[in-house]
Protein 1
Amino acid sequence: MKKIITADNTESFLNLEVNETYHSQTGAVEEALKKYAEPCQIKERAKTGSIKILDMFFGLGYNSAMAIQVALESNPNCQIEVIGIEKDPEILAKIQEVNPPIAFFQYYKQLNKNHLELRQGKVIVKVLLGDVKDKVKELKNQEFDAIFYDPFSPKTSPEMWTRELFIEMYRVMKDSGVLATYTCARMARENMAAAGLVYDDGPIVGRRGPGTIARKWV
Ligand SMILES: C[S@@+](CC[C@H](N)C(=O)[O-])C[C@H]1O[C@@H](n2cnc3c(N)ncnc32)[C@H](O)[C@@H]1O
């Protein structure tokens, strides 16, 4: 793993095995805000008083740390629960080496392979460490208001974009829930639709194509 600085001047890593970065090179922290927190309406949902987020492919945790920050700015009393899924303890260790401009991220520094849970005020973050295919089975039906779906690309990791995994996402999402991802790849969208999700374009951020947002057909 090699550290890189993305275009918004925030840090990420290049994974040398898949030869992909953990975040968009157009801006790691910008991506967390614009491709995940904003399209999932975290600010608005926080006003209801509680919010539960699934941070799929947790990595350094930027996406959920940003969402917590946005939610607390919107409603400091909001009860927030984040469940993250990640298989690689090495990337969790790298949390110590980055300092994104996200105030809540200071508490993420408590996380590592031996300490997978943090509590801070009304916020709980739990990381399920292991392969996504096993860990999703531990999630309850209709738990989540928002799902951040952030694996490596469909090109290098097609097994992370299957109908089977999106069926699990459908199962754990509330009827009012939303899933956001950074890509508009056809294969990803077709498998979402095959799982019963209805998708639309997400925001265009940087120079890349739109992301995708998906909801349940209810
Ligand atoms: C694009 S990165 C995620 C970046 C992350 N959201 C962040 O903000 O740092 C994809 C992540 O998927 C994880 N991953 C790859 N295969 C996995 C699997 N089978 N189960 C769980 N996580 C996996 C990788 O270790 C990597 O951290």
Protein 2
Amino acid sequence: MLIAQISDCHVTASGTAYAQALTTEALENAVRHLNLMAPEPDIVLVTGDIADAGRKEEYEKAASILNRLKAPYLLTPGNHDHRARLRAAFPDHGYLYAEHQNAPIRYSIDAMPVRLVGLDSTRPGEHGGGLDRDDLHWLENSLQDDRPALVFMHHPPFGVGIGNMDAEPFANAHEFETILNGAPHVLRLCCGHMHRAVQRGFGGRNACIAPSTGLQLELNLTSGAPSRFMLEPGGLALHYLDERNWEPLEMVTHFGLIPGCGHSFAGPYPFFDVVSPV
Ligand SMILES: [Fe+2]
């Protein structure tokens, strides 16, 4: 099973975010890249900040691009998103449905060998994230049996050492960690928000943060790191498992780069079958 993850698309109606990043074209590149992959992903997770300012026209643009994906895809919101407008732009995504359009977007899907549990870590009006008691209770119920699961959401529940991004603690991180400590069948926690590929342990699980498709935050591991971005290549994460042959069942995560927006990568060239001169 191959689960692709893209994140922090920050689509704008003009095509450009923060006067520099061609984020709309970058999402087009990502979709093209995913559609050409062999093997094809079984599903694509989009872990938030789909739109840059939560505007209707941004979601319409994002939907027109994401709907070109050959694989099915699941959406979870980020702090730049607007729950009701996101729901409205993806009417075919029944799992987004809630009686109240501004209710948290959370769901559990059992159609694959791994249960996919999407959480809503956003707190409307705030940049930082967290999970409230209701979210945590819902999650505990969703993980009650021992079925292998992947949990995904926008905000990572821990700091990463980049000063400005660590300034806002994740609400109820300890309670969330306690739930994961009691759920060894969670194979991976997948997040976004940091616009960089990052890994860390959390609650006894391996947590992976996928890079942005369109703009990467400056890799500045100081407490005073300002909020700045780099036009490094867009990226994605690939979560792979061989559910028929791997015992015990484990998940492996690869991080890849996406060509386009001025970035191209030479190769591939032969490697293992070249005799090195000594
Ligand atoms: Fe973002």
Protein 3
Amino acid sequence: MPRPIPPHIAMPRPAPLVDRTPPEARHSRRRLRACHHCDWVMALPPLNSGEQANCPRCGHAEVRRHRYPAQRSMALALASLITLLVAVLHPFLGFSVQGVSNHIELTQSATQLLGFHEPVVAIAVLLTIMVLPSLYLLSVIWLQAGLLWGRPLPLSRGIARSLAHLEPWMMADVFLVGTLVSLIKIAGLADIDLGAGFWAFGVFVVLLVATSQSLDRDWLWFALAGEPAAPDATRTGETAFPQGLTSCHTCGLINRLDSQGKGRCRRCGEHLHSRRPMSLQRTWALLAAAAILYIPANVYPIMTTTSFGRADPSTIIGGVFKLIETGSWPVAVVILVASVLVPLGKLVVLAWLCLVAPRAHQFNALTRTRLYRLTEFIGRWSMVDIFVVAVLVALIRAGQLMSITPGPAALAFGAVVVITMLAAMSFDPRLIWDTPVEQQHKQGSV
Ligand SMILES: [Zn+2]
Ligand SMILES: [Zn+2]
């Protein structure tokens, strides 16, 4: 006959709703993941602060563990938001030439484009440097505040899901480089005055990057919703696809899919697919659109400089040659790489990856995966030239003496950057690693 349970064990104290200890301290069972880049199923090792777990097959970073993750990202997000507020409320840049001076605020780099009938580029600038980063920071504060108080705040799961989708579109760091390039471009023409807003924006960029680096998604989802056990009979050391499994792109949890290769994550509710649906077709279509837009982006002028009544339109390449003529070699290289080599390189690399994916099973798979990661990482830096135009248009409004207006190539080039980013996102790198058998299985669904 079993002994009666003592009352102090039978009625434990109510546990807090959120446990802020790391996942390793709470679970003895293995936590399984399938790599997002090569589909390899692995068990996460226990991680100490500062350590990260990489995929043994392709090297993709699965989890990075931070010390005090909630406190750290909360503090960084709050500090970023405050510096952004300071940057918006103070003069950003000043400019004076032959007695005519002009000051601009950060928001004017977007709003001035409206005056030149470029609403789409204006909205893109406003979204990428201010609106989306603010939303991201508020989301981080909302999530971490809930976790630190021991009770997730309403809508926490939906907000946590949206973080990963916001991240690639935050381009404050690219805008800062664009501002520096435009300052070097006009340094010989006028006296430049860096306002308090400029310095605050520089600090904001550093803090924003630190905030997104500090976010430990594995820990965040574990604290928000625990970790359901992996499906029965999940085998490590082989790919997830033949086992009918996939890892959630948002929270990492391994899930079983239905016979159609679809499902929903048990932890975060995200839609799941064994491979991104129509991955190759979508990537091809986006690449074709980007290649077509690349022509007007280079044929038409990206901006027109008018000084002393003489209009001087310049294309992207023309701008690079002009910079070389004036001896600004470093800036010419930055613009050449960001505006010409990166978009062209992305088009060529993604087209090649799509072309060989159905044929070259695992041939140079690691090299091709690394190339894919590189295209995904550098794509957003092509926006530099758009930001240069935005800053110059806003800054130089000295009336009859000198003015800069955006050209039709600005919209076309901005579209090329956004569409190639979407193309990289729609390509599924797991296709690189798929064996011919897996490819045959998927022909119906991919
Ligand atoms: Zn991998
Ligand atoms: Zn999930």
